[in-house]
Amino acid sequence: MTKDQWRSIGKEQRRALNSEERTYQTIALTRAILKDPRWQRANTVLLFLSFGSEWDTTSLIQSAWASGKTVALTRCLPNHQMEACRYTPETPLITTLGHLKEISPDSAEPLALDSIDFCLVPGLLFDPYGTRLGYGAGYYDRFLPQLPQKCTILAVGFSCQLIGDTLPYETTDFRLPEIWTPDLQISTRRPFKK
Question: Which residues contact 165 (CB under 8 A, 6 or more apart)?
Fold first, then answer.
């Protein structure tokens, strides 16, 4: 199957989750992350704002603020690049690319990438070998290799987002070191690009 065919499957599977299952899995994912010692030690965490049928990161973001962590969100730049910007409850957001909420350029406060201790990665589908299938623009594939070695890079999604098959990939795709669902926490079995 092609990447686009897999993307369609991923979107359908996420949308098929009923609200009770979505809430249950979101709570399980949030609790698992909050218990992780690497999260607890992290001073600066790079997260994402959920959209559409993604698991809801709101509680995780609020917990990070409550524990005094610096929270960052990515912001899209020209040429499919991203930067990490400080995110506070007062930070104004705008809608970009038709559906994504991100920090307004006028309010963007970029952070040094070497300050990031923990990075949460979104995606449509993942396989046990570290392949991540996103929406196809390659933003995260270009961004993740720039993070420091000390940074925990963790992809997290609903159970239906981790498939047993090998997803198609390109040599430019970043292979994830770790993927979590409410049911599994796996380290990938192939090396990833750094």
Answer: 127
Helix (H, G, I), strand (E, B) or coil at 146: helix
Q: How far is CA 126 from the centre of its chain?
A: 11
* Residue 132 near residue 174 (C-beta atoms within 8 A): yes
Q: How many CA atoms lie within 13 A of 157 on its CB side?
A: 27
Is residue 166 within 8 Å of 125, Cβ to Cβ? Answer: no
pTM for this structure?
Answer: 0.92
Tell me: the pLDDT tens digits for 16-32? Answer: 999 999 999 999 999 99
The angle formed by the CA atoms of residues 116, 183 and 149, to the nearest 5 degrees, is 20
Q: Which of 30, 83, 33, 28 is nearest to 58 (CA)?
A: 30
Contact 179/130 with Cβ under 8 angstroms?
A: yes
- What residue type is assigned to position 63 of the chain? S
pLDDT of residue 165: 85
Q: Identify whether the C-beta of residue 149 lies closer than 8 Å to the C-beta of residue 140.
A: no
Task: Tell me how far apart the alpha carbons of residues 69 and 84 are, in angstroms, rounded to a whole number.
Answer: 15
